[in-house]
Amino acid sequence: MCSLILKKKVIQLLLLVPFFSVGLVLSNTDIFETEIRRLEKYTGGRIGVMAKNLGSGEIVSYRADEKFPTASVIKVPVMVEYFYQVKEGKLNPTQKIVLADSNKWGGSGLFQYFQGTTYQQLIDAVLMMITISDNTATNMVIDVLGKTHLEKLEAVNERMKKLGLKNTRLLNKLMSWETKTDSPESIRYGVGVSTPADMVNLLEQMATFQLVDSTSSKGMISILEKQEYNTIIPRLLPFEITPGLRVAHKSGSVTGVRNDVGLIHSSKANIALAIFIEQSLDRKSGPENEAYLAAAKISRLVWNYFTGNTGFKRTFVTSTDWNSFPGGEWTKVALRNSPYPHFSRENGYQYKEKMFPVDPHYSDSSAVIIIPDGFNETEDGTNLIVHFHGWNNDVLKVMEKFNMIQQLIRSQKNAILVLAQGPYRASDSGGGKMEDDGGLKRYVKEILELLQNEKRIQTIKLNKLIITAHSGGYRPAILSVANGGLQSQINEVYLFDAFYALTDQLIPWLTINKKNKLRSIYTDHLALEHKEFRRLLKKEGLKFSDKFSRKNQISLIHTNAGHSEVIEGTFFEWLKGSCLEEAK
Predict the structure, then answer these.
(1) What does the alpha-carbon distance between residue 206 and residue 213 come to, in Å, rounded to a whole number?
(2) Pick from 105, 91, 171: which is nearest to 134 by CA?
(3) Domain range for 105
(4) 8 Å CB contact between 504 and 534
(5) Is the alpha carbon torsion for 142, 148, 153, 156 positive or negative?
(6) Are residues 250 and 178 located together in one domain of the fold?
(7) Would 421 be classed as within a structural domain?
(8) Per-residue pLDDT of the chain (584 residues; tens, 9 = 90+)
(9) Is 303 among the domain residues?
């Protein structure tokens, strides 16, 4: 059985490390070490790694007992000593410590930029020390651990010895030249020294709640989970496909040094991991430093080793970002069944002398969804309003320009508004997928499924549907009514100076159910089209009115307002007189 498990590990590692030559037979440890050596050569530095599966006890390592400069990783032992002294009654987390110009230090952190003299809580300095690696905060914490400089260092170092860490020592305060010594360790390692094995030992004790006590150990883990710098251990881990994956860690870097130590917690494995890199040749700052990238790959290599995953890439995912505002919330999403992209515009579109290429005019599949406060899914399903914009526009411009959101909220009607992206800023009335049979039905279904996944509604049942259009949006609006597959569920159609053509295709919808309502407001330039439509309505025996009334099936209203002003106020009035229920 053991040999079968070992063979399985070898196969998994061979799959995740594609650069091994064919026919090379190595043990699982050899494979791990070979990859670390490759990364060592790649960075030009020296690497030390140790990782322990806290469930099985299995360990993988490379130079685990060799000493490395800690840089800011030494702040973890400082935090541990702080928690011990709190437990012993020597320190109080809420005690005040002085932050003055005389004890502000450079490097990382924010305390150095505080103006004048202030008083900080000790626990807040500990948080700053770990979460943003604040050097001033670190020195403030060190200063309360003893009376003299040597006593402060020894408090940390003796504690590490008692905990079984043989090679971990705090050698100086951060950025403090005045207290730096010429000891061999200080010259060689700077502010602190440790080994991968020591750090994994400390982390395991923390993970098993053996440091101080259970409450203190959990407190330390909670602080480490809040670290803001995630360029190493978390960087390539598959959070997107591993629910509950968490990392509690502390990184550290100075010239040529890139370190990270931490705990990886998940349902697949619980891992204590320490990665040290020194003397890396790439000295540029920022997350693209080659040593950062190498260390991140080591973290993922360890994860793959213990979990059976392969590869180094994180899965691309996107999420729905809801934006709150007074009166509701909105989001912009990409939908497969949006009007575009569509084969009808695969070569773009030319209007007179101007050409509108596919990108960006027919590659935008977005929609804006607005949910007013007080919206409630009815027993019969969700009420939707779908709006199609006009020429040379896009959904975000519609949000800004036409006050449709504000009018919906003011109406207090129980419906969700969808702004559908048509041709993006193009002189084009094309409807794309809304011209296809069943196009509207697929579009609405996808929107309802998204809202259900976002826990905004419980079911994907559609109750009432209102289709609206401004100007050139008439084509997708009318064809979605005629061909969209939801004719029996569309209750009302609103056309805002948008009666250019295809008006005859609304007749079947108007005649099939006399409760269906058509409202059209128009300026002088569409007077002829409305005159022809009135003639058609008379021929079909359909009644209409030149004024708006909720009782009228068809309202055709002339206005002296400008073409871009016809929506303002009209949308609100029509909503108030609509079939929609009041929001609760």
Answers:
(1) 9
(2) 105
(3) 68-275
(4) no
(5) negative
(6) yes
(7) yes
(8) 444 444 444 444 444 444 333 333 445 778 889 999 999 999 999 999 999 999 999 999 999 999 999 999 999 999 999 999 999 999 999 999 999 999 999 999 999 999 999 999 999 999 999 999 999 999 999 999 999 999 999 999 999 999 999 999 999 999 888 888 889 999 999 999 999 999 999 999 999 999 999 999 999 999 999 999 999 999 999 998 899 999 999 999 999 999 999 999 999 999 999 999 999 999 998 899 999 999 999 999 999 999 988 888 887 777 789 999 999 999 999 999 999 999 999 999 999 999 999 999 999 999 999 999 999 999 999 999 999 999 999 999 999 999 999 999 999 999 999 999 999 999 999 999 999 999 999 999 999 999 999 999 999 999 999 999 999 999 999 999 999 999 999 999 999 999 999 989 999 999 999 999 999 999 999 999 999 999 999 999 999 999 999 999 999 999 999 999 999 999 999 999 999 999 88
(9) no
What's the CATH code of the domain at 93?
3.40.710.10
247 and 340 part of one domain: no
| Rounded-to-integer distance, Cα 583 and Cα 417, Å | 13
Q: What is the pTM of this model?
A: 0.71
Q: Which of 238, 260, 275 is the last residue of a domain?
A: 275
Residue 10 lies in a domain: no
Indicate the number of domains in the chain. 2
Nearby residues of 251 by Cβ (< 8 Å), 6 or more positions away: 72, 73, 133, 227, 229, 231, 232, 233, 258, 259, 260, 261
Answer yes or no: do 266 and 385 share one domain.
Answer: no
3-state secondary structure of 302: helix
Distance CA 196, CA 261 (A): 8
